[in-house]
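Sanity check

After download, print the first record. It should look like this:
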Amino acid sequence: MDKNIFKNNKINEELFFYESESGLKVYLMPKSGYMKKYAVFATRYGSNDNKFIPIGEKEAIEVPEGIAHFLEHKLFEEPDENIFDKFSESGASVNAYTNFDQTAYLFSCTDNFYENLELLIKFVQNPYFTDENVEKEKGIIAQEIKMYQDNPGWKVFFNCLTGMYHNHPVKTDIAGTVESIQKIDKETLYTCYNTFYHPKNMVLFLVGDISFDEVIKVVNNSEKKNIKPGVDSITRIYPEEPKEIKEKYIEEKLVTSIPIFTIGFKDDELGLEGKELVKREIVTNILLEMLFGKSSEFYQELYSEGLIDASFGGQYVGHKNYGHSIVVGQSYKPEVVLERINTYLEEIRNEGLNEEDFERIKKKDIGSNIMGFNSVEFIANNFINYLFLDFSFLDYLDVYKSISFEDALNRFNKHYRKDNYTLSVINPV
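Expected structure tokens:
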């Protein structure tokens, strides 16, 4: 049994790794004495992956928007049993999610971990699609899409993405549209499943007081046999995306008591991978905290004037072929907030960032991340997210500590400009 052990002595954590015969990568971060155990079975496949070359074929195909999310729903369906009930009977809480770049199935429990792990592997690796159950699911997901279309927080975010991006699929709702899901059939679902749910494209991550030898036994006994050979990397095709934003301002009216807004700064520094991509993410999130965090003078000023409330804040999301900073909040005068942000950013361009703020926030964030290693959910979800960026979360704090004030200055000047943002507003009906 070939297994590797990776250690980071600075944070006193280790990671076990094993690759099964099918190509499935299995990771365990042991947490001796922890009662809670957590498992995530994830595939590098999300709502952005609508154009690709299926395994075993030569020509690219384009599939309906929302199919990754649809597939996640359908995997919980078995001909003779209810997966949720099965996990519940074994004392586990099970869930799943689909985002732009991945789909994950997860459970947590205190007892019967290995039985639940076997159940997780088996149900994810045994799709059951019929014409009837696919048609039935369309009605369920259509209702879900309509519900989100009426959700002001969801709509203001996706309207902002629509304003920033011309062609990239990140601008499309993860669930697709009511029209797009009508085009989904069981054959297309199987094509997507057989390509993206191949073990070579998947990761199983476990954390808790767990025996790795026992995990490997369960994996070898539970995973599907006779799986067709996969490919080391799937050919995914994304449209050409201009660097410029598409629209400066998008407004819509929905049921909300106060106008809500999202300001998106589109990234045009793309193509980074692994450590460099993670470094850019960390630097940008430190900047967002410096600029707009609750401890910033700017936040306190706008808050005391009644222009923003406690919902105001920012976050950066970045991948190899797209990235953006998002600043969100609610305000009776969102255009005034934007005007003040522009003036504030111009002042900083002229006067410079505060190095003391940078060091304080960096130290605070490092402390928060060290504390995070006490949470099995924090470890598992971050590990999967960064692994799909070709980076080990075990090295995250080392990258954090390597970031300099000069990195923040350079990033500020390149990213927060007057020509690369979109303002999205939802006003009350």
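If your output differs, re-run the checksum step. Summary of this record's structure: The mean pLDDT is 95.
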